[in-house]
């Protein structure tokens, strides 16, 4: 296994692939100090204010002179980013060659959509009924049989005491979850006096199959557990009528996410997921890239891949809209990465963002969708949402993702409402946390497999999971949602 990797030939830093002791040689440069795994080493002497180049792109500048062979991190470099940027559309669009579709065993819904799970979901419209929803799940597990994969609910604290855009976002997101094809049937559970009224919910929902979606307002019945049981039995009968059948990979929608990133995220797991994204798009499928604050500093790598100026301007509005969100709260736009990211070797937001956006591969960006909306176009989509793991994973689910690919260098156990595939950036994490990690991209750094081989193996795993194989989070029953909020709580 090599000690360092220079990602791009124009880079003036390399990344340590393991803890490297002082004196280790790379490209004729000797390490002048111990270089931690995932961290950067200067390949040449850098003067103060000189750009640090990684991924062939400036990720910051030196705050003091840096000798060749020296550790490069927060103590001697800083971001180049400040304020807003004016963007211009200079298309650099690479077409993705069409490849044959593959198959998986999914559930064909009455509206023609495909699900990869056949579950019953209870959607609380307000936090006040969370415990009722949990009790209904706990006391009705006997209904999970035949082709029904599970009975779940997703507690949250909102649906009341919200105003303006926060109220709208909560309503949109809960309705989008209700429509998700992984749910064979849904019980929408209300209290009765909340701001998110059933009338509002129905208006947002539009036409629906009354066999698939039932409503229960707890204040309107004497015994919500008894009536809830009645609804769930009817919903289970409907959901149980679905059986797995052959479906095409072109019908899959996959969310792309990273969290607990480290210095190898942009070298192994993220670019490998990017190859997977291109492969699925080549088969006619769809992928979704979000985490807007983790595009800052690398957004131009994405913007010029927009298929036309309309999509470009939507993408610019999305990025500037998120910057305004920061500024309106008097926060520094570029206050990132996290302490864990820094410990793993990521120094600046550009460093983090250049690695993050690689999950989107090279495919053209076909659409930009708002928070709470769902994907309507085949190909690579961008989604308005934060970097926060639970919030963005929930937004990806609501956008229609059947499954999430979640890359991580440090590990995390959480799960979203849909199968959440944890992909380690390094073999050490995959070895230590077998109960969290579903797939190891660290073999790329180990030199035991090429990035294309690993991406091909990931495609096989995705099709297996789409056909019913459980992820680690599913085996443990780890599922939760978190809803994005901006304003006040009344």
Task: Note down, in words, how this protein is organized.
By secondary structure, this protein is of the alpha/beta class. The protein is 29% helix and 20% strand. It contains 14 helices and 23 strands. Strands 19-20-18-17-21-22-23 form a seven-stranded parallel sheet, sandwiched between helices. Helix 11 (427-432) links the parallel strand 22 and strand 23 (439-440). Helix 2 packs across helix 3 (198-205), helix 2 packs across helix 10 and helix 5 (269-282) crosses helix 13.
Question: Any chance you could write out the topology, listing elements then pairs?
Answer:
Elements: E1 4-5, E2 13-16, E3 25-26, E4 29-30, E5 40-42, E6 51-54, E7 57-62, E8 71-72, E9 77-78, E10 103-108, E11 114-115, E12 119-124, H1 130-139, E13 150-153, H2 164-178, E14 183-190, H3 198-205, E15 213-217, H4 224-239, E16 244-248, E17 253-258, H5 269-282, E18 286-289, H6 300-303, H7 309-328, H8 339-343, H9 349-356, E19 365-369, E20 379-383, H10 389-398, E21 403-408, E22 420-424, H11 427-432, E23 439-440, H12 443-446, H13 451-466, H14 472-476
Parallel strand pairs: 12-13, 12-14, 14-15, 17-18, 17-21, 18-20, 19-20, 21-22, 22-23
Antiparallel strand pairs: 1-2, 2-5, 3-4, 5-8, 6-7, 7-9, 10-11, 10-16
Helix pairs in contact: 2-3, 2-10, 5-13
């Amino acid at each position: 296994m090599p000690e360092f990797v220079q990602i791009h030939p124009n880079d003036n830093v390399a990344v340590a692939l393991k803890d490297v002791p002082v004196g280790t040689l790379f490209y004729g440069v000797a390490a002048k100090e111990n270089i931690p795994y995932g961290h950067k080493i200067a390949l040449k002497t850098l003067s103060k204010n000189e750009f640090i180049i990684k991924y062939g792109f400036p990720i910051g500048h030196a705050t003091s002179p840096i000798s060749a062979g020296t550790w490069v991190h927060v103590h001697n470099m800083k971001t180049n980013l400040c304020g807003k940027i004016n963007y211009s559309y200079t298309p650099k669009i690479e077409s993705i060659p069409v490849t044959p579709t593959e198959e998986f065993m999914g559930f064909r819904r009455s509206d023609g959509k495909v699900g990869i799970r056949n579950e019953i979901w209870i959607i609380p419209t307000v936090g006040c009924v969370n415990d009722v929803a949990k009790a209904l799940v706990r006391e009705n597990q006997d209904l999970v049989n035949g082709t029904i994969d599970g009975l779940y609910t997703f507690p949250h604290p909102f649906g009341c005491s919200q105003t303006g855009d926060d109220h709208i976002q909560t309503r949109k997101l809960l309705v989008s979850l209700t429509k998700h094809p992984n749910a064979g049937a849904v019980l929408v559970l209300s209290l009765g006096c909340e701001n998110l009224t059933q009338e509002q919910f129905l208006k947002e929902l539009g036409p629906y199959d009354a066999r698939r979606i039932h409503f229960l307002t707890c204040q309107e019945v004497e015994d919500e557990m008894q009536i809830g049981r009645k609804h769930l039995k009817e919903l289970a009968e409907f959901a149980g009528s679905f059986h797995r059948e052959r479906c095409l990979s072109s019908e899959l929608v996959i969310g792309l996410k990273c969290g607990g990133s480290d210095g190898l995220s942009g070298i192994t797991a993220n670019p490998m997921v990017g190859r997977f994204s291109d492969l699925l798009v080549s088969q006619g499928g769809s992928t979704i890239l979000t985490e807007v604050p983790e595009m800052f500093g690398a957004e131009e790598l994405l913007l010029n891949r927009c298929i036309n100026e309309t999509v470009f301007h939507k993408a610019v509005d999305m990025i500037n809209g998120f910057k305004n969100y920061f500024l309106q709260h008097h926060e520094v736009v570029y206050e990132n990465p996290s302490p864990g990211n820094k410990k793993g070797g990521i120094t600046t937001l550009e460093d983090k963002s250049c690695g993050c956006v690689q999950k989107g591969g090279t495919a053209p960006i076909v659409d930009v969708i708002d928070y709470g909306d769902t994907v309507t176009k085949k190909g690579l989509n961008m989604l308005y949402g934060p970097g926060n793991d639970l919030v963005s994973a929930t937004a990806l689910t609501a956008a229609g993702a059947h499954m999430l690919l979640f890359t991580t260098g440090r590990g995390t156990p959480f799960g979203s409402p849909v199968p959440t595939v944890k992909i380690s950036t390094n073999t050490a994490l995959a070895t230590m946390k077998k109960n969290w990690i579903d797939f190891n991209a660290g073999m790329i750094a180990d030199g035991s497999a090429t990035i294309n081989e690993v991406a091909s193996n990931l495609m096989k795993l995705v099709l297996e999971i789409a056909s019913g194989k459980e992820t680690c989070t599913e085996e443990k029953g780890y599922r939760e949602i978190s809803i994005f909020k901006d304003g006040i709580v009344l």
